[in-house]
Amino acid sequence: MESRKLASFFEEDLCIFSLRSRKKSSVLQEMVRRLATAGRISDEHFIMEMLKNRESLGSTGLGMSVAFPHGRSLAIKKLTVLFARSAGGVDFEAQDGENTKIFFLILAPSDKGAEIYLALLSELIGIIQKPQKLEKLLTVKDYASLVAVLDGDE
Amino acid sequence: MREEFRLLVGLQDLDIMIKDMKDKVTTDELKNMGFKLEGLEELLTARTKLASKIPTALLNRYEKLAGHYKVAILPVSGNQCLGCFVKLPTSFFSSAYSHELLTCENCGRMLYIP
Ligand SMILES: [Zn+2]
Known about the structure:
Chain A is built from five helices and six strands; from the N terminus they run βααβββββααα. By secondary structure, chain A is α/β, with parallel strands linked by helices. Chain A has a single domain, classed as 3-Layer(aba) Sandwich (Mannitol-specific EII, Chain A), CATH 3.40.930.10. The longest helix of chain A has 14 residues, at 24-37. Chain A is globular. Chain B has 114 residues and is mainly alpha-helical. Chain B has four helices and three strands.
């Protein structure tokens, strides 16, 4: 992903540090609602449909408490990431059967190729594979600490 | 936005996902990252269901364009067609057409005013 810092994809108003929802579909809805209120998407309905279709291919909950809902839609103009955390965790039908606590929602526009979100996904997966980083993400409470985890050296 | 356009946009999003799922480079990469991709049949069923709600003439027009272009239907933004970036005539923006499905005269893509 060239030299762009990972944290530069994250915006403060697109971070939810305490998700209220407890169910898979309502978590997706809560995240999509935030994108709409922050003015990043033109239509919640399209994004929800796309994300539900994507989940029907297999849960994007990869286990280790982390999920990466993602896809492309006409309703989004540029590559956008939303971070969300649920302290209690949600049954996101994750591959390891455990609750999901961290969500990286990645949306890309439909006129670009899949590679634009694949590169970002791959970098984020690299982050959660580092145990110290994952541990910090699980308790991150504000934007500054999120940025520190994403761009920090350890 | 009229219901038919909404359905078309939904169909286009779905087609893009189906295309990704049929692309070996994309699916291999996702699988290497740990994603399970098993429900293509379900997506195809959802597509059939969605397509059946769209009037035939409109669907045919979309299918033809979708064969040529990554994006066949798109919203008008600024005064350009975002498909081919040609400037659209001002008559495009008169209120008489604001609920109609428009056509870019340069590239033929379907345009709507959001
Ligand atoms: Zn055009």
